[in-house]
Amino acid sequence: MLSIQNLQKSYGQHEVLKGVELTIEKGEILAFVGGNGAGKTTTLNCIAGLVEQNCGGIMINNVSKSQSLEYKKQFYFIPDTIHVFPNIAAYDWIHFVLKLYEKTDNEKLQNFISVFGMEKSIYKPMGTYSYGMLHKIALITAFTISPPILIMDEPLNGLDPLAVVAFKNCMKEYVEKGGTVLFSTHLLDVAEKICQSISFLKDGKIVLHERVENLLVDGSLETIFMEKQANEG
Question: Which domain of life is it from (predicted)?
Answer without folding.
Answer: Bacteria
